[in-house]
Amino acid sequence: MNFNSLHFLIFLIVVLLLYWLLPHRMRWALLLVASYYFYMSWNVWLVFLILGTTIVSYGAGILISKTNNGALKKFYLITTLVVCLGVLFFFKYFDFLLGSVIDFLNLFSMNLDDFALNLILPVGISFYTFQTLSYVIDVYAGKFEAEKHFGYYALFVCYFPQLVAGPIERPGDLLPQLKKEHKFSSDDMAAGLRIMLYGFFLKCVLADFFGIFVNNVFGNLDKANSLAVFSAGLLFVLQMFGDFAGYSLIATGTARMMRVKLSRNFDRPYLATSYTDFFHRWHITLTRWFTDYLYIPLGGSRKGKARRIFNTFIVFFLCGLWHGANWTYVIWGLWIACLISLESLLKKPLKNLCEKHKINVDGTMFVLARRLLMWVSLALASIIFRSVSVNQLGEAYSVLFTKFDNYFSGAVTCLGLTPIRLLLITLITAGMCMLWKFAEGAQPTDKPALLPAAEKSAYSQKVSVYFYVIFSIAVFWFMLLASQSSSGFLYFQF
Description:
By secondary structure, the chain is mostly helical. It contains 19 helices and no strands. The longest helix has 37 residues, at 70-106. The radius of gyration is 24 Å and the shape is globular.
């Protein structure tokens, strides 16, 4: 059941009506049934997989909370890690690892036949696995008291708005909200609608439309030239933002209608001036998860430059692998680790150089130059991420650095650009940049407000039902212009 489907619209209306009609004591059961139904709409039998993971992590939390024996606590923790990560590895990486081993052995003329179990990849398994692990680790560390009510814990794991693609929530952030008695609020309903509308714009208008041009190039690399590949990489950055940020916003808006505030997952990453800055803005909850549960326990930046770089490579190697069972994701992760490590090594020398020559690093032109450099770098990295195989990656980069014939006309033809499509790209990109303010005032954040309180209040008063109607008409009009069919969310495969 995709968010951008009539099925979900009907499902959401029914759930919201029942949620606000039922008394508080019955809402957890409604949401649990709704969440399992939502997940079973992809594959009925996979519900037993998420249920098994839920039971194991719930039991581990209870056992850890009932003993003062440190060794026993560690045993329960390790057992849970092995079981949950084992399930994730088996379904997501077993065929990939087996195929890689066979390919490696065939390099030595062993002539082994390809073999794969062709396992179904459970939707959202990486997300809910990380969520269950954060719960058990927090209980083990004494940061969160074990949840005794199995129903509420099961709901924490499978809460349908963020079940299949995040945000990855911490137990201390989500569980208390699910247990709290909420009263209907028209302000929260309006805020949720605002957030959802912007999410649908990013997904159905921006991501689906830009994906047409990206697919045109990567599906015909033999006919592409350097500019076409680079442009596809640039458009893919925006496509991924529209797709994933769109999902996160729809999830956030859906939960907000039930007065649950999910964590912010994106904070205008297209304004980043460095990769460190970028990953503080992009998929924030995943960055936070890897930082708190892997980078810091490995030693973080506390043990010198060499150890910090080593830890960075470990984190981004696993981050790349987390995105999918493909060597291109691993290469992407290692490439990002190289860039972040280089930034950390050059940060102090560059700062001293700028101070010596009295260069204002916060000046408008300097900041714009850094953002431009980031966009070029992101476009190059996105080519790695978008490639479906190492062979296609090699072909894409070969075209990028060798084919400069028919530079503009060849790129336009390969991308499938027309004057009206170019105009739409411009308008949609401008809309993405301007409409963030439409949803900004409704999103939770742990940072200072991006809008002053007085301005935010005045802006909220201007938003009326008429504005919603006009905005909705505009969104669906753009949808008709942009794409004749909608697509699933890319991050569902992760």
